[in-house]
Amino acid sequence: MTYCVGLLLNDGLVFASDCRTNAGIDNIATYRKMKVFAKDGDRTLVFLSAGNLAVTQAALSLLEEGTRGKKAGNILKAPTMFQVARLAGEAFREVHRIDAEHLKKHNYDFNATLLLGGQIKGEAPRLFQIYAAGNFIEAMPDTPYFQIGETKYGKPVFDRLLKQSMSLAEAAKLTLISFDSTIRSNLSVGLPIDMMCYRRDTLVPGYQERFTEGHPYLAEIRRRWGEALRRSFEDIAPLPMNEAIPELESVR
Amino acid sequence: MTYCVGLLLNDGLVFASDCRTNAGIDNIATYRKMKVFAKDGDRTLVFLSAGNLAVTQAALSLLEEGTRGKKAGNILKAPTMFQVARLAGEAFREVHRIDAEHLKKHNYDFNATLLLGGQIKGEAPRLFQIYAAGNFIEAMPDTPYFQIGETKYGKPVFDRLLKQSMSLAEAAKLTLISFDSTIRSNLSVGLPIDMMCYRRDTLVPGYQERFTEGHPYLAEIRRRWGEALRRSFEDIAPLPMNEAIPELESVR
């Protein structure tokens, strides 16, 4: 599988993706799932991808060819993030037209999702999740984040701690904790983690880092979060059990 | 969905199950998913069920009828937990023979899982997970717990904190934290939580409790665990970001 996250904050956007690709557990490889398109001073666009790697790579290749004028739509010239999301949806639809029936013959689903976040001059930063069917949804203040891939293990920490008013650096920390929880519980998500923090209104790609095994900040998070959970757990009293009173019926 | 957990500890067994059943999100009900069979001084058997409620109820009804001598297998007389697990698997197979083709006509899967834990005099406590096909696996010291249903949200805290040497009261606390994380992140798992803690070699059902909204210990866990996570999170330094150095390639 895969795990990718996009956060829409007052200060900008945080993106992160793992790098594990597997076709069966005996065929594991490292692939970058984050792709950045930028025109400095005008726009920064970040894509994260999950699902069938051939499908998402083909869609992103179509978008990249579009930026070189070889196709109609050019995401570096589209006037709004909404129009960029439509072009990404159209790229999925074109790949579907070409590949879907062949995938079906081999019993593969046309299974793919993109996160798209970024900012175009004149708009606020925006974040979208684009489905394989080419339709999409946009993140709103009520739920200012999207996850794709193996989303469940790392969701509780966002549900408890994410605030749209967080600084990028705090949100990046939370994102790494969410990835750590996921990687510990699920083999199909693996290091390194690619991260990009885009600061609102800068219109250039911001902080970018690849967190590999042994990265000092990631190592600190792993150690300190684990210790803090253990301490927090020990600080709560154990369940007071009155074993004398079975309250529930049983078959005897 | 459902969320059920069984833990195999040196001191005994902890069981917990939520009570939400849904057939579509507009048809939600409260059902008990924990069933106890006991012969005091000889055995305590606890079943937790997930999946198609009609299937798991039918299987448990067959097992219960068996205890009244109306069918061949009697789980209150089986000599070992392994034999009890086989009888439970056979119950699934009988339900499958009767119902599966009809479910298929209505596009329903024969989807069901049971956890079975307990102790029979002369054996140590044991814990099994029984699949819809009637086969099963047993928990071992390397991974001394099973989850069924919506398992992913609540798995990270077990992976980080569960030890087989924990007291029942500590393990019960950890289990309630795992349920709280799951309930916060997934609507299909809901209160109340049924819990049973079986103490090794007692051969009678142990502490049993139904945790409803407002139960003082559950409320304390929810409040203190949330606060502790927030504090732990704040104690870790934010990601030090050097925004001047974009390290990753982008399409410009």
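qc> Chain B touches chain A through 74 residues (CB under 8 Å).
qc> done
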